[in-house]
C-alpha cells in the first residue's frame, strides 16, 4: 500500500477533531446526494484565526479523510492561509489529475490528488471543504473566491 492510500485510511479511521464542539459561530449541514455522504461542520473564528473546526462526518473513507485533513490543515491558521489552502485543494480536486497538489500548502491533502481522476469521487472529497466555506461565510468570513478575485 502506498503512502497516500495509507494517509487516507489513517484519516478515515482516526479523524482529527471529529465530534461537534462548542463554542462555535456557525454550523452547516451538507449532503452529497449522489452517494449519501453527509457532514455537519462547526467553525469558531477568533479574530482572523480559525480557532476550531469540529464536525460529524458520515460516508466513504474519502469523505471522512478529507474532513479530517481539513481540520488538521486549517485549525489554528489565519484566514489568509486558509483561503490559500482552500483554493489549492479545490484546484487540485477539480483538475482531472492535472494538478498534483502542493504539499507545502495542503499537507496531507496531497493524498487525495488521485481522486481528481474520478469525477464521481471529487464531490466526496470536496464536501467538507465546501461546508467550511459555507460555515465561514455564515460567520461573516469569505474564503471562496471566483476566478476574477471576487468572493462568492
Automatic annotation (TrEMBL):
GO terms for biological process: iron-sulfur cluster assembly. InterPro entries: NIF_FeS_clus_asmbl_NifU_N. GO terms for molecular function: iron ion binding; iron-sulfur cluster binding. Residues 4-124 form the NIF system FeS cluster assembly NifU N-terminal domain. Gene3D superfamilies: 3.90.1010.10. It comes from the Bacteria. PANTHER family: IRON-SULFUR CLUSTER ASSEMBLY ENZYME NIFU HOMOLOG (PTHR10093). This is Iron-sulfur cluster assembly scaffold protein. It comes from Phycicoccus elongatus Lp2.
Amino acid at each position: 500500500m502506498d503512502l497516500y492510500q495509507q494517509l487516507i485510511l489513517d484519516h478515515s479511521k482516526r479523524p482529527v477533531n471529529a465530534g461537534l464542539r462548542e463554542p462555535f459561530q456557525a454550523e452547516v449541514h451538507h449532503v452529497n446526494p449522489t452517494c449519501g455522504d453527509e457532514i455537519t461542520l462547526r467553525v469558531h473564528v477568533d479574530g482572523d484565526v480559525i480557532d476550531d473546526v469540529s464536525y460529524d462526518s458520515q460516508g466513504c473513507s474519502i469523505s471522512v479523510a478529507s474532513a479530517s485533513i481539513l481540520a488538521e490543515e486549517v485549525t489554528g491558521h489565519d484566514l489568509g492561509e486558509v483561503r490559500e489552502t482552500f483554493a489549492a485543494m479545490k484546484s487540485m480536486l477539480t483538475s482531472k489529475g492535472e494538478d498534483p497538489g502542493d504539499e507545502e500548502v495542503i499537507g496531507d491533502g496531497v493524498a487525495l490528488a488521485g481522486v481528481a481522476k474520478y469525477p464521481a469521487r471529487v464531490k466526496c472529497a470536496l464536501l467538507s471543504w465546501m461546508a467550511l466555506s459555507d460555515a465561514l461565510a455564515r460567520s461573516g468570513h469569505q474564503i471562496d473566491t471566483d476566478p476574477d478575485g471576487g468572493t462568492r
